[in-house]
C-alpha cells in the first residue's frame, strides 16, 4: 500500500507562527500593564508646597496604618512615647521649635496617632509641615 505523505503548506506554517506570536504579544502586554500599574500606584505619593506649607501625601490601603504606609513611601524618623509613635522627620525635614509634621485624613486633622490609624482604600493621607 502506498504511503501518503502530507505536505505542509506554507500558509499553514505562517498561520501557526502568527498565532504563537500573537499569544506571546498578549502575554507581554498584560505583564507590562501589570507592572506599569504598580509603578503608577507608587507614584501617587508626592511632596509639595501649598501656600508655603510643605506637604507629603499618599493614599490609604485597607489594613495598613498611616505610619506603616508613610515608612514604606518615605524616609521617616519617629520617637516613641506613652501616646504612641511621634513623627519627627520626613525625608530629612525635621520638626523644629515652631514647625511640626501634622497628620491629616481626608482633609481633617487626625484625632489619633498615625501608628494607630488604620487606613482604608480611598483615604487621602496628608502630612503637613506646619508652624504652630
Number of helices: 2
Strand order of the largest sheet: 1-2-8-6-7
What's the SSE pattern? HEEHEEEEEE
CATH-derived architecture of the largest domain:
Beta Complex
Give the domain tally: 2
CA-atom Rg in angstroms: 27 Å
Question: What is the CATH topology descriptor of the largest domain?
Answer: Ferric Hydroxamate Uptake Protein, Chain A, domain 1
What portion of residues is helical? 25-40%
CATH secondary-structure class of the largest domain: Mainly Beta
Beta-strand percentage range: 25-35%
- The outline comes out as elongated
Q: What is the averaged pLDDT score?
A: 81
Instruction: Extract low-pLDDT stretches.
Output: none
What's the total count of β strands? 8
Sheet of most strands? 5 strands, antiparallel
Output the structural class. alpha+beta
